[in-house]
Recover the amino acids of this structure.
């Protein structure tokens, strides 16, 4: 049966209802993005957008179990907690949503289906598409819905000046990313062949795509392909990590459009000079600039993450190591 994903109109209505509920208690002041692993990274576009553009909302990202055991004092009736789990069954994320409701916060839950334990804990539930299975629906992924929620919150809380430009971006997103992925397949296959025997691959990114470097490192390289990895913030590369650069150590750098691009470009210049194996995934080359300049940077991680998955698939094929092969996850008690 075809899954019905949460529409833009529905998210618009959710934001308005969140604002109304919070206003009755003194106003919306804080937003907490709460999830684990890739789901936490998937919420980062929401955090980055609000951190850059909102004068009214303070936003934080916290891993679910830390939220449960060290619940911030600001989780109250003036807070919104956004939780995400693809299956909707991640125990610590379900518990975090419950804890948030007990504290009086407004809770938005997100998963890839409507009927999940996580959904039961939210006043609002967003259903997103798993584009990696559907080969499409790039405008309805967890990243895309989280970003859209962010723009809607900016509209109702800050009167955001570039709201219409952002909404126009969502209209072209699915087709634009689909075309970009078709163009990068040959380069992804080359990446897979060249890196199939590597024991370590470092990822680098900043700004809106810092989370893409994080997800590629912990989810795709470490979890799925069992390759040692660490994600390095492009701005932090020069404060310790660049000492590891040499002509044998591979780096995968994610570049975004927008304010933080200068950090990515600086990191790339250094790595191209002192490291011999550097692969670049660049949202600008992927076509993000089809979206208005005022908002294109916030869409950059959506392009970069979908490309990262294509590169990871090619790596898995070259290694003959299926992406979803596991030793521990879902197999042993933890």
């Amino acid at each position: 049966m075809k899954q019905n994903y949460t529409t833009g109109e529905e998210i618009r209505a959710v934001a308005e209802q969140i604002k109304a509920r919070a206003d009755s208690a003194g106003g919306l002041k804080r937003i907490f993005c709460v999830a684990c692993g890739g789901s936490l990274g998937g919420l980062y576009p929401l955090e980055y957008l609000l951190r850059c553009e909102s004068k009214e909302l303070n936003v934080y990202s916290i891993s679910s179990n830390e939220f449960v055991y060290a619940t911030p004092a600001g989780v109250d009736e003036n807070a919104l907690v956004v939780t995400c789990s693809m299956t909707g069954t991640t125990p610590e994320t379900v518990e975090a949503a419950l804890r948030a409701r007990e504290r009086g916060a407004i809770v938005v839950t997100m998963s890839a289906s409507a009927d999940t334990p996580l959904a039961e804990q939210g006043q609002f539930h967003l259903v997103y598409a798993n584009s990696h299975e559907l080969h499409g629906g790039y405008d309805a992924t967890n990243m895309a819905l989280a970003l859209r929620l962010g723009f809607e919150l900016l509209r109702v809380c800050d009167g955001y000046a570039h709201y219409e430009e952002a909404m126009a971006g969502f209209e072209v997103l699915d087709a634009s990313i689909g075309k970009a992925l078709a163009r990068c397949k040959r380069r992804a296959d080359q990446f897979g062949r060249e890196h199939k025997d590597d024991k370590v691959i470092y990822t680098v990114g900043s700004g809106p795509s810092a989370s893409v470097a994080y997800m590629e490192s912990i989810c795709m390289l470490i979890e799925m392909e069992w390759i040692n990895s660490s994600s390095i913030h492009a701005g932090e590369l020069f404060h310790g990590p660049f000492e590891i650069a040499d002509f044998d150590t591979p780096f995968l750098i994610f570049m975004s459009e927008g304010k933080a691009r200068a950090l990515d470009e600086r990191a790339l210049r250094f790595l191209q000079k002192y490291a011999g194996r550097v692969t670049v995934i660049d949202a600008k080359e992927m076509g993000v600039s089809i979206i208005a300049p005022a908002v294109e940077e916030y869409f950059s991680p959506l392009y970069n993450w979908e490309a990262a998955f294509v590169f990871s698939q090619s790596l898995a094929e070259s290694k003959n190591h299926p992406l979803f092969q596991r030793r521990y996850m879902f197999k042993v008690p933890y």
The longest strand covers residues 30-35. Strands lie at 30-35, 58-63, 79-84, 106-111, 124-127, 202-205, 231-233, 250-255, 277-282.
